[in-house]
Write a sequence for this structure.
């Protein structure tokens, strides 16, 4: 029988990196405070959930900042045409983005 992997490596293999990073500290605190197994597991799961939430928020902020720099006003003039859209359609979107017309049913160009 082969020796099992250390617990922190098993956690990393399961993509529980936050748990793996805090495992020793939580186990030391559990021994000091004489915590039950269920409480230790609850602390480790909480650490993983908080870490994943923080990563998600960081990712969403990053994605939002990347997208916020793009608008119809700073694209090259022929960009929409190169994507296969008609020039009239591009003009309607440009006018909508600059506030010269409001949204309406398909084909409604509003007042340019």
């Amino acid at each position: 029988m082969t020796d099992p992997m250390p617990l922190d490596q098993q956690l990393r293999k399961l993509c529980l990196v936050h748990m793996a990073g805090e495992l020793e500290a939580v186990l030391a605190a559990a021994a000091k405070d004489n915590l039950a197994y269920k409480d230790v597991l609850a602390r480790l799961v909480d650490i993983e959930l908080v870490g994943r939430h923080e990563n998600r928020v960081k990712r969403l902020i990053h994605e939002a900042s990347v997208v916020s720099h793009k608008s119809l006003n700073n694209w090259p003039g022929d960009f929409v045409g190169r994507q296969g859209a008609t020039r009239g359609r591009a003009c309607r979107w440009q006018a909508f983005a600059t506030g010269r017309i409001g949204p309406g049913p398909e084909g409604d160009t509003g007042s340019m």
